[in-house]
Amino acid sequence: MSTDGINRRGFLECMAWAGTGMVYAISGGVARAAKLESAVGGAPADFSFVQISDSHIGFNKPANSDVLGTLQTAVDKINKLDREPAFLVHTGDISHLSKPEEWDAADSIIRTAKAGKTFFLPGEHDVLTDNGKSYLDRYGKGTKGDGWFSFDSSGMHFVGLINVLNLKAGGLGNLGRDQLEWLEKDLKAQKSDTPIAVFAHVPLWTVYQDWGWGTEDGLQALSYLKRFGSVSVLNGHIHQNIRKVEGNITFHTACSTAFPQPAPGSAPSPGPMKLPAEQLRRALGLTAVSYKTGDSQLAIMDSNLESNNSQTVEIKIDNFAFNPGSLTVPASAKVTWTNHDDIPHNVISTKKAFASPVLDTGETFSHVFETAGEYPYYCSIHPKMTAALTVK
After folding, report:
1. Residues 6 or more apart in contact with residue 47 via CB below 8 angstroms
2. Which of 13, 37, 223, 242 has the fewest CB atoms found within 10 Å of its own CB?
3. Pair (326, 277) in one structural domain
4. What is the pLDDT of residues 323-346, one digit of tens each?
5. One domain for residues 304 and 223
């Protein structure tokens, strides 16, 4: 597995630095992308969960003087989902300064989310004092070691990792020997056809080393995941949606509910970005994921905190198939097809409503659907590849 952010087979897609948010619909074990408002279009999922991240309660600077308000907006969106998610996971930086009153304020909002269970992982802002003991006393009940955990749900295996303790100056995230040994043992008990989802605050892959956006021993953890057919790694920390697919592993980072950060390397340093007030909520968001037994992909849906219903949906082209093959989206949705195969494909509407150029590996094509109706389409290079969209 490469350690750089971009290569041909493991392409990197930045889903807008001013991000969208995320619903995860799990269908057969891997993650696809669309927006939160429609949950997951198409065939109903077996179950779903939601990820939020980087709420930074206690932050009060020009980048966002109302982080409680934007966290509340994220929870409100969760509570409007058509189907209650099986669980909610917060992937760290719940607080800004590890203060009990900040966690109290965050909890008062998060506990109103309509989700079956809630799981927490710390960010570096949650372990600023006493090496994370206060965080662990509050959120670590039932976990192992410094707070790592795993559980099974609906045929999937989920793992929560801690990579924000014992950090070195100027360095990357760190898992440590004890946690890696636990992870290796935990995964050995799983069959290779079990879909796996891994959560951690700092990305397990190196997004941008100069800013510490990666995990020093992440490659060791990822080596334990290579034998599984379907793996999704979901992180926070960098406050923007970035996706990378490499082999059997889909990496996805979530937006913050508090403030955006610059795209990797686009500024002298990372940190809160101040945007015009009318743009801020467009740069914040959450993620939802759904799963359907028998599918090969999780459906990952990113939703921003803006009050409109615009939507961005991703369809993967992989293994000579469009995934999902059947999808329902609202009018005004933007649908993006991404070619994950090693050979070219295209996307052609049978009603001549849209047509893509030839898409090589990693290339994309997008179309905005303004009019309700049925939109069957196919690949004219490989005509047995067919699928359909319904716009309502």
Report:
1. 26, 85, 86, 153, 154, 290, 291
2. 223
3. no
4. 989 988 887 788 999 999 999 999
5. yes
